[in-house]
Design brief:
Blueprint lengths: L2 H11 L4 E6 L11 E6 L4 H13 L4 E4 L5 E3 L4 E7 L7 E3 L6 E5 L4 H10 L2 E2 L11 H7 L2 E2 L2 E2 L4 E8 L4 E6 L17 E9 L1 E2 L2 H18 L6 E4 L9 H7 L6 E2 L2 E3 L6 E4 L5 H19 L8 E3 L3
Parallel strand pairs: 2-5, 3-5, 4-19
Antiparallel strand pairs: 1-2, 6-7, 7-13, 8-14, 9-10, 11-12, 11-13, 15-18, 16-17, 17-18
Helix pairs in contact: 1-2
Bound molecules: flavin-adenine dinucleotide.
Amino acid sequence: MLETVLRLITEIVGMPGVLVEEPMSRHTTFRIGGAADVIIEPPGEKQLAAVIKMLKRFKVPYFVMGNGSNLLVGDGGIRGAVIKISSTMSKCSVDENDDTIIHAESGVKLSKLANTALNNALTGFEFAAGIPGTLGGAVFMNAGAYGGEMKDVIKKVSFIDTEDCSIHTVPVQECDFGYRKSRFSDGGAIITGASIQLENGDMSEIRAKMDDLAERRRSKQPLDKPSAGSTFKRPEGYFAGTLIQDAGLKGYRIGGAEVSQKHAGFVINTGDATAKDVRELIDYVREDVKKKYGVELEPEVKFVGEF
Ligand SMILES: Cc1cc2nc3c(=O)[nH]c(=O)nc-3n(C[C@H](O)[C@H](O)[C@H](O)COP(=O)(O)OP(=O)(O)OC[C@H]3O[C@@H](n4cnc5c(N)ncnc54)[C@H](O)[C@@H]3O)c2cc1C
């Protein structure tokens, strides 16, 4: 990338916020992915807007990520810039006037938000405690689990419109939330923060619910192996994991990628999987399930970069 752009961006975000030729395997839960030309971690909304302006001015392509828990990055890495909105933009606090509302920056982890809710005896966010993403990634995806979805708790969302770098806040009604999608899924916006609306509850009941859901996850999901969670979206009228299991694909391997023995809905990295292995395995599973059951499986995992 142009020296000049790098220098100008470093001036905006500071030295530690710029990682050059950085392996994406260090930034994804799959632990897979070649190097990004540069990863930029902005410390706040204003710096983020300034970085976008700069990248656009120099026509540098960019990709926005949170915790990388729903990404498969190609072995060839990512050309241009990756903007990582995570720990450097992760403040959250309870509203001063209404103690059932939490305001948060989009880089906050869902687990931290869930703990903030718990510590303030607020109920409604327990479902999200075990999803290993950021608030921004979860809003983008309308992440959900155990009967809850982000759309149930979001009050408003703030974002930068990347067309003109203007900053907006919209109420939940304008977020177009659907199954694993939102108005942000089509691109063109970077989520910078959100407010969530919860209810006063009982701290010990909230804790018990979080513990119960964590145990259900541990017993059903291969949490000890790198993955990006459920590989496929839920096809209407079916469960992806059941279809894959019934097709006899549990434990099926290509290279270091494997259909988890514990939960067939997860493709896992057994240690040395490449993005190519994972992609080939996903394609194989899709073809086999289509052939045997006539059902089209659509990946939930996002493919990014050069394969
Ligand atoms: C073990 C495991 C369990 C999981 N369980 C669940 C589950 O129960 N339910 C569920 O829904 N998901 C689950 N997931 C998937 C994943 O955690 C969610 O999709 C999560 O919402 C992704 O958040 P992220 O910050 O990691 O986003 P990333 O993976 O970094 O990005 C996902 C998408 O969001 C976009 N994005 C991220 N941040 C922003 C932003 N600030 N502005 C604009 N776009 C942005 C990215 O461009 C990308 O397209 C699981 C994953 C794992 C590894």
